[in-house]
TrEMBL record:
Protein name: NAD(P)-dependent dehydrogenase, short-chain alcohol dehydrogenase family
Family: Belongs to the short-chain dehydrogenases/reductases (SDR) family.
GO MF annotations, alphabetized: oxidoreductase activity
InterPro entries: NAD(P)-bd_dom_sf, SDR_fam
Signal sequence region: none
Organism: Lacicoccus alkaliphilus DSM 16010
One GO biological process term: bile acid metabolic process
Sorted UniProt keywords: Oxidoreductase
Matches recorded under NCBIfam families: PRK07231.1
Xref: Pfam families: adh_short_C2 (PF13561)
Length: 256
């Protein structure tokens, strides 16, 4: 049977996006209250409506801005007294250009959201989890944490960094009853993937979609719900001896 999250408080960044919302639904279904943080206020309203639960609280925030991060952590603790689970998930894929054509501004933007955002989130959430004496953090890395990919320097570098941050944080808090892990999804059917397809084959997303599927041993895209189940496992006591790990949710891509 799936572990219950009754009376647990789950904080999710990128909470209005595909994987964030699926995570919210999984934790809500298991009894938790969830706090969704996202830059996109409209999408947050829509997410809250989609989830249709009075156990959803939303905060408009920017994971790259230290004050905003402090604020989303403080607001969560003011309202709910604690943070049991932190799903540190906001991210973008960024412009698709080879390194020689990529502006520093573009590279910095991806690194700021995908890496600095994950760092800042952990910085303030770990302080809170140390005070309360427990917690579980799940960062969203990617298949991109292991591989190179032409035209995706910012995304690849940023997700390699998330893997490093995850392992380092896990060691720093190993004695504090806090676990830190990451999921490493690949080709999950969300707006981000549609964006990638549209960039690879403009106007013909199905074409690159088929090519991507051919590189996945399961021959299909993953669903946000399939990622959410692994996140909930990592956040639960079922994974109580698991820390510093990257869990692949990729239809076999890393095995190939
Ligand atoms: P998505 O675009 O549906 O969701 C991402 C969310 O992050 C959006 O709601 C966006 O508004 C939010 N966001 C962006 N910048 C932000 C900021 N500065 N502050 C706060 N929120 C911000 O994409 P998704 O597929 O749900 O992606 C979620 C995570 O999963 C990302 O970290 C992504 O890199 C990772 N991932 C996705 C895939 C995939 O195939 N979809 C594969 C591997 C990893």
């Amino acid at each position: 049977m799936s572990q219950s999250f009754e009376d647990k408080i789950v904080l999710i960044t990128g909470g209005a996006g595909g994987i964030g919302q699926a995570g919210a639904k999984e934790f809500l279904d298991r009894g938790a209250s969830v706090v969704l943080v996202d830059l996109n206020e409209e999408a947050l309203k829509q997410a809250s409506e989609n989830l249709g639960s009075d156990k959803v609280h939303t905060i408009t925030g920017d994971v790259t801005d230290e004050e905003s991060v402090k604020n989303y952590v403080e607001e969560t603790v003011e309202k709910f007294d604690k943070i049991d689970v932190f799903f540190n998930n906001a991210g973008i894929n960024g412009p698709f250009k080879n390194i020689k054509d990529l502006d520093k501004k573009e590279f910095d933007m991806i690194m700021n959201i995908n890496t600095t955002g994950v760092f800042l989130g952990m910085k303030y959430v770990i302080r809170q989890m140390e005070q309360q004496g427990h917690g579980a953090i799940v960062n969203t890395a990617s298949n991109a944490a292991y591989i190179g990919s032409a035209g995706m320097a910012g995304y690849i570098a940023s997700k390699h960094a998330v893997a490093g941050l995850t392992k380092t944080a896990a060691l720093e808090v190993a004695g504090d009853n806090i676990r830190v892990n990451a999921v490493a999804p690949a080709a999950i059917d969300t707006d981000m993937l549609s964006d990638i397809q549209n960039n690879l084959t403009p106007g013909e997303p199905e074409k690159s979609g088929e090519a991507i599927k051919q590189g996945i041993p399961f021959g299909r895209f993953g669903t946000p719900e399939e990622v959410a189940k692994v996140v909930a496992f990592l956040a639960s006591d079922d994974a109580k001896f698991v820390t510093g790990s990257l869990y692949n949710v990729d239809g076999g891509m890393q095995a190939d």
